[in-house]
Amino acid sequence: MPRHAEMSAAGQDRGSLYAEITDKIVADLEAGRFPWVQPWGSTGTASSFDLPNNAATGRRYSGINVLILWGAVIEGGYATQSWLTFRQAKAVGANVRKGERGTTVVYASRFIPGEDSHRPDPADDRRRGIPFLKRFTVFNAEQCEGLPAGIGVPVVAPPALELILPQAERLIEATGVDFRIGGARAYYDPLHDHVRVPPPQAYFEAVNWHRTAFHELAHASGHASRLGRDLTGSFGSKKYAQEELVAEISAAYICAALGIVPTVRHADYIGSWLELLRDDDRAIVRAASAASKAADHILAFLPDSAPGTTVAQDDGEEAA
User: Is residue 111 exposed (0-12), middle (13-18) or buried (19+ Cβ within 10 Å)?
Assistant: First the structure.
């Protein structure tokens, strides 16, 4: 069979697969909402029961700062409770990564005016002092580069790579996307163009690591240097919901193309956004079309001998 005929046939086969999965997702959505449950636990992340500490001095934070920094660790999905100021990072020969946002902590104390500070009796009512509050911006050790060994970043168990299917590992590596494993959150950072997912051993079912990984990789396909989708939607907006639809459907397509099961539990996540999209009956059509392009873009990085390597022809669905 001529090469162009093989490509056409492969494209048609994949298009049929995409259509089958999309139809299943639509049917699941029409049957009712399925609340999404995070498929991973806290393995490989900083325990919120560890006290935050300053990586440069070793001192533990106290008071309100503990709550502030615990919250920042959870929000950032960091694997360490160690923090530094910008100057402290510089002092140890490291630096804060460009574009990273710090966390504000506070230091409360009292200033003793000149002559009062020399009074011998601390209980003297005249030695009252003036309370003051000073703010500092600190950065998690994971937000820094070049930290010396033993400072800030704890030694943690490496991800159990044997739980990642070889065909998935090859594809992820072949895309060239900055793909990081660790932490408690799965996300794509469009500003710094990197993906982060929890380690596979953190998942209740290790196979589900793959659908999370390809969901985030699908988001990365929308970067301006790749397919150039609009990734500016804020949480709760229709733009955000639309991009989530694209990423989830694309992840289902990729898993199916690689022979990874399960492939369509993604409908659980999509169902949580259905309420935002009820007023647009073409949203699922647009999302499926964009998801096809995203999946094709990612699958094209596989070697020619691997399944799903040719790019399907555009199905002609209007994307706008």
Answer: exposed
Task: Give residue for tokens 């998942």.
Answer: 203
CA–CA separation, 288 vs 317, rounded Å? 9
For the stretch 17-23, contacts whose Cβ atoms lie closer than 8 Å and that sit 24 or more positions apart, written own/partner, are 17/253, 17/256, 17/257, 18/253, 18/288, 18/291, 18/292, 18/295, 18/312, 21/249, 21/252, 21/253, 21/256, 21/263, 21/264, 22/249, 22/284, 22/288
Q: Using one digit for the tens of pLDDT, what is the confidence trace for 226-274? A: 999 999 988 778 888 889 888 988 888 898 788 886 544 455 555 555 6
Nearest to 84 by CA among 46, 58, 56: 56
Residue 212's Cβ-count burial label (10 Å; 0-12, 13-18, 19+) is: buried
Separation in Å, CA 225 to CA 177, 220, 221, 273, 285: 11, 10, 9, 27, 25
Q: Which two tokens stand for residue 243?
A: 């991009």
